[in-house]
Every structure is written in structure tokens, then in C-alpha cells.
Design brief:
Blueprint: H1 13-29, E1 31-34, H2 35-45, E2 50-54, H3 65-73, E3 77-80, H4 83-89, E4 98-103, H5 108-122
Parallel strand pairs: 2-3
Antiparallel strand pairs: 1-4, 2-4
């Protein structure tokens, strides 16, 4: 299956696994926003430190605005393969198209590491 039009980067599985882990730690020790609306508001307010966007969202237009908004606000974002795993990692029993970390809590170092790796991927390294 081809990637949706809004997915601009191929994220290695190891990186998405670390990202899910960081989300779980932030959920337990910091603050996160769940769902497209909460995530969009956090990005617009400039309080999101890392945004997660699921690749398997239908229709894709639900999250297509997020990469553009994140780039405008210079907030790192990562594409993850599964909205169900994204929802589960954020403490929901259902899938979530988008999630953001507002306060990483004990995941601060993981979030920094993810951001650095994302920058490297964007630069083609």
C-alpha cells in the first residue's frame, strides 16, 4: 500500500517504536493531547513539543493540515504507522489519528533524541 499524500517522510520502524515509548512515558509523567482537535489546538498555541500523525487515517484530509501547521510553527512531527497503536500508547481504547506531547515529563531526553533524528531524516541523512 502506498503512503498517504500527507506523509512526507519514511520513518524507520526503530524510530517509531522509540516514539511510541516516549509517548507512553509522557502520558504517565507529563502531559499529552489526544485526537486531531486537541493536537491542532496545541500546535496553534505553540505548546506542543512533538506531534504524532498516524499514516492509516481515513479520510486522510482529517490530518493533512498537521504537517503544514507543524512546519509553520517549527514543531517536530513524526508519522507512525498505526492509529490504533497511537491511541493505545496515549492511553485510549480506540485509535487516534493524531496525538501530541505538551510536557514530556520523564521522556524529555527521548523527545530530544527523536527530534534530532527527525531533523537528520528531513535533511536526507
Amino acid at each position: 500500500m502506498s503512503k498517504p499524500f500527507y506523509v512526507k517522510l519514511d520513518i524507520p520502524k526503530e524510530l517509531s517504536d522509540v516514539a511510541y515509548e516516549a509517548l507512553q512515558v509522557a502520558r504517565d509523567t507529563g502531559k499529552i493531547g489526544r485526537g486531531t482537535n486537541e493536537t491542532t489546538k496545541a500546535v496553534e498555541r505553540g505548546v506542543a513539543v512533538l506531534v504524532y500523525i498516524a499514516e492509516d487515517v481515513e479520510p486522510p484530509e482529517v490530518v493533512a493540515h498537521l504537517p503544514i501547521l507543524c512546519e509553520e510553527r517549527q514543531i517536530p512531527f513524526i508519522f507512525v504507522p498505526s492509529k490504533y497503536r497511537l491511541g493505545e500508547s496515549s492511553g485510549l481504547d480506540v485509535g487516534s489519528a493524531a496525538v501530541c506531547i505538551v510536557d514530556p515529563g520523564n521522556a524529555t531526553d527521548l523527545v530530544k533524541e527523536i527530534s534530532v533524528k527527525l531533523d537528520t531524516l528531513k535533511k536526507g541523512g
